[in-house]
Amino acid sequence: MRCVFSESMNDNALDVSTGAPPSGPPGRLPGGAVEWRATTAVLRSTVRAFTSVVDDLVATVFPADCRACGGSLLRADSLRFDVPVCDLCLSRLSPQSETLVTALCRCCGEAMGMESDRFASPVEGLLCTPCRMVPPPFERAVAFGVYEDELRELLHLLKYNGVRRLAGPLGHKLAQAVMLFESASQWTGDVVVIAVPLFAANTRARGFNQSTLLADEAVSRLRKLRPTWKLAARHGLLKRVKSTESQFNLSTRGRRRNLVGAFKVEDARNELAGRDVLLIDDIYTSGATSRTCAQALRRAGVRRVWVATLARAQREQVEFWSSSSGDSG
Q: What is the DSSP string of 275-300?
């Protein structure tokens, strides 16, 4: 039978050496600082020991499996925050810079591959062929990671299985992507944040818009990490006014035709005129959605549109999906 209490209850967990004060050798600190440091060390060690006991009790009394990998959830964190995913899966969410060995288009974030050797120049930087031929109506699109492995699994849990609490850790990853804009000369941090909307009937059927959840979590995180930025969430200003066909089985051109007239800006007070907008979505696939939303925003008087997504489906993935079944994008 499994022992409920962790080995961390021993002296090592308390981080106190036998025969020595918890804070180490006495020093020459004024005003009782030595005593206060010793007390603080004991309190912190006690909290760590108590947390370890709680983790063991939760894992023993309320056993559960990680919804992503199937492994056991060994920490109380997963139950306390209602996130049925283990720490290992969360730790495997890697930025694109760590998973791709090729350069990215400086505009849309497409993996360049061999194009990086053909079209790079000190003046224009790296631009993929679509961005060179038809420049997007947005300034730049960034994404946290590639749409695969754990990131794809967790997005599916959020989007299709209704595990809303995953918006917390995933929103923090999205915030990391938004901070990539700091390198852009025109980025000021004074932006209106708008999540790509779902059609009203789809929102009612699902019960939520995953992009809105991710956007709100990212904004909350960024307000702590970048307190000087002015982030104003105004999701209701952009509406999806047309029920569109699933984008999955469509070509890139078909995706763009499918979205014609799908989005409309409702801004009676002209709140967006002359403003910068940060457009948030869960996945960037072909860029058709981002382009169409950006066009609607620009027609409403928006000065610049910046696009940030949690995941980026690279060209090889999109081509594979176009010839097989599985994902929507």
A: -EEEEEEEEESSSHHHHHHHHHHHHT
Instruction: Show me where the domains of the chain are located.
Output: 1-57, 93-322
**Is 93-322 assigned to CATH 3.40.50?**
yes
Cα separation, 290 vs 255, in Å, equals 11
User: Judging by DSSP bridges, how do beta strands 238-240 and 263-265 pair with one another?
Assistant: antiparallel
SS (H, E, C) 159-209: HHHCCHHHHHHHHHHHHHHHHHHHHCCCCCCEEEEEECCCCHHHHHHHCCC
Residue type, 169: P
Mean pLDDT of the chain: 78
Assign 2 a pLDDT band (cuts: 50, 70, 90): very low
Burial of 266 (0-12, 13-18, 19+ CB in 10 A): exposed
Do the Cβ atoms of 6 and 52 come closer than 8 Å? yes
Question: What's the CA gap between 213 and 232, in Å, rounded?
Answer: 15
Tell me the HSE value of 91 on the side-chain side, using a 13 A CA sphere: 3
- The b-or-e profile of 52-64 (16+ CB within 10 A means b, else e) is bbbbbebbeeeee
pLDDT for res 62? 55
Positive or negative, the Cα torsion across 295, 190, 111, 107?
Answer: positive
CB 73 within 8 A of CB 65: yes
